[in-house]
Amino acid sequence: HLHPQTLRRRLAHEGTSFNEVKTQCRQDSALYYLGKSNLSIEQIAQRTGFSEASAFTRAFKTWTGMSPQKYRQHL
């Protein structure tokens, strides 16, 4: 029950944006699932809101500098 413009203003006041919050949630969830589950990369991609595993892998590399598979190997 919050108007989108009101949400944008409140987030801007906090020094962030909706996209930044969404990206941080996706990243946190991805790191959690990679470390705490035996889910496949495809399943993690779906759970974190990506339509394709390749898009998830590209985003993950941007966040961490490594692929999800490499990240999992280093845990």
Our measurement of the CA-to-CA distance between the termini, rounded to an integer number of angstroms, reads: 41 Å
The CATH architecture can be given as: Orthogonal Bundle
**What's the helix-strand series?**
HHHHH
Query: What's the number of extended β-strand segments?
Result: 0
Protein structure class:
mainly alpha
| Residues in β-strands, percent | under 5%
* Principal-axes shape call: elongated
What is the fold-level CATH name, i.e. the topology? Arc Repressor Mutant, subunit A
Q: Treating each run of at least 4 consecutive H or I residues as one helix, how many helices?
A: 5
Number of domains: 1
Major sheet size, sense and barrel closure: none
- In terms of per-residue confidence, which ranges show pLDDT below 50 for 5 or more consecutive residues? none
Rounded Rg: 15 Å
Level-1 CATH class name: Mainly Alpha
Overall helicity: over 70%
Mean pLDDT: 95
Brief summary:
The chain has 75 residues and is an all-alpha fold. 72% of the residues lie in helices and 0% in strands. The N and C termini lie far apart (41 Å).
List the helices and strands and how they pair.
Layout: H1 4-13, H2 18-36, H3 41-47, H4 53-64, H5 68-73
3D architecture notes:
The protein is elongated. The protein is 72% helix and 0% strand. The longest helix is centred in the middle third of the chain and has 19 residues, at 18-36. With 75 residues, the chain is mostly helical. α2 packs antiparallel against α3 and α3 crosses α4 (53-64). The N and C termini lie far apart (41 Å). The chain contains 5 helices and no strands. The protein has a single domain (4-73), classed as Orthogonal Bundle (Arc Repressor Mutant, subunit A), CATH 1.10.10.60.
